[in-house]
What we know:
Elements: H1 3-60, H2 71-88, E1 92-99, H3 102-109, H4 111-128, E2 134-139, E3 142-147, H5 152-167, E4 182-189, H6 195-210, E5 217-219
Parallel strand pairs: 4-5
Antiparallel strand pairs: 1-3, 1-4, 2-3
Helix pairs in contact: 3-4, 4-5
Amino acid sequence: MPVGHSVFQKVDGVSIQLFRYGNLVAGALVLGAPSYYLARAVQDAQNDLIGQNLILESISRTDELTQLPNRRYILERLAQEVFGMKRTRAEMCVCIADIDHFKNVNNSFGYDVGDEVLQKVAGAISGVLRKQDVVARWGGEEFLIMLPETSITGGTVAMEKVRAAVESLRLPAYGDRISVTVTIGVAVTTGDVPIESSIVQADAALYRGKNSGRNKVVLQ
Length: 220
């Protein structure tokens, strides 16, 4: 066999092998690319689902109108706080604030104005509380306020600030035709009684205030 022909065969064999290896690499890349993008797509979908679940969880614990925590959230927080208080024996104040004569606002000016009043009262309360305090919309025109590590004296001072902040609210579009005040009932607990009992005590104090003139802070 001619030398040239032998060399050609050898080189051709190497070329064929390289060609085969190239095909294998290319095939792996072609097959691997969809797997990579599929994995990315699955991960992105999972992240989106987690994000959507977090949003839904937040919505389920937030009052749509006032953007305050709702009843569900505050009850969970109260239970957590009481659990810790059984160890520390710290005091906590539970307060209920109710907008005075709120039905008159709705009846005289309409529910849109009533909603505006609720939003402004929510902002006024939030604006004077400490970072660790929690205010939630309890229902209707009532707000429940949790004051951790607070004595009855401290709770009274804090709620007087809330009462004054609400009383100073103004709705410019309505001049002096709408004045907003709240009556607040305050109860204190050390975690030695069910939190429901403290809420009932705060509610009872609130209604004593309602029956004795309104726009005041009343203790349990």
